[in-house]
Amino acid sequence: MITGRTTYDTSLPWSGADGPSGPDRRPVFVLTHAAPGDPPDGGVYRFVTDGVESALDRARAAAGDRIVCIMGGANVGQQFLTAGLVDEISVHLVPVLFGAGTRMFDHLGLRHRQLEALEAVATPTAIHTRFRVIPE
């Protein structure tokens, strides 16, 4: 799993040293300009300060034949999309409109990105969609 520093900072009180995968303890690579001075002892977090490609290489090596996912904030997702490093996008629509925050699909440049719809599942609380990013 790859995430950004803000998501790490805000989720750490909930997930603790085990990270968001709980007792499975899957590695979490945190993109950041500077590693925190007080990460949890024995935690699953690895801090990456040298860019998205490096984070992806490290996550792929740790994942082996499993899937690497990018979770959390829009900024990290934008960096990976702009670098052409995303195979699929999952979008979960919930019935809430936020008045502020970072838009997920801002700052991606002027060119269009083609997507192929793979799945849409409606539930009472959200609509879950999945798209394949068509390579350019």
Account of the 3D structure:
This protein has a single domain, classed as 3-Layer(aba) Sandwich (Dihydrofolate Reductase, subunit A). The protein is 24% helix and 24% strand. The chain has three helices and six strands; from the N terminus they run βαββααβββ. It is globular and about 40 Å long. The two termini are 25 Å apart.
What are the SSEs and their pairings?
Blueprint: E1 2-4, H1 5-15, E2 28-31, E3 45-48, H2 52-63, H3 74-82, E4 88-93, E5 115-122, E6 127-133
Parallel strand pairs: 1-2, 2-3
Antiparallel strand pairs: 4-6, 5-6
If you compute it from the alpha carbons, what radius of gyration comes out, rounded to the nearest whole angstrom? 16 Å
- The helix fraction, in percent, is 10-25%
Helix/strand/pairing class, anyone? alpha/beta
The end-to-end span amounts to 25 Å
**Proportion in β-strands:** 15-25%
Instruction: Give helix and strand order, one letter per element, not per position.
Output: EHEEHHEEE
Q: Spans with pLDDT under 50 lasting ≥5 residues? A: none
Count of folded domains: 1
- What would you give as the CATH superfamily? Dihydrofolate Reductase, subunit A
- How many beta-strand segments? 6
Shape: globular
Any idea what the CATH architecture is?
3-Layer(aba) Sandwich
Helix tally?
3
Mean pLDDT score: 93
CATH fold group? Dihydrofolate Reductase, subunit A
Lateral arrangement of strands in the main beta sheet: 1-2-3
Give a short account of the largest sheet.
3 strands, parallel
Using the coordinates above, name the CATH class: Alpha Beta
Domain Bacterial bifunctional deaminase-reductase C-terminal: 55-125
Protein name: Bacterial bifunctional deaminase-reductase C-terminal domain-containing protein
Region (Disordered): 1-25
Pfam families: RibD_C
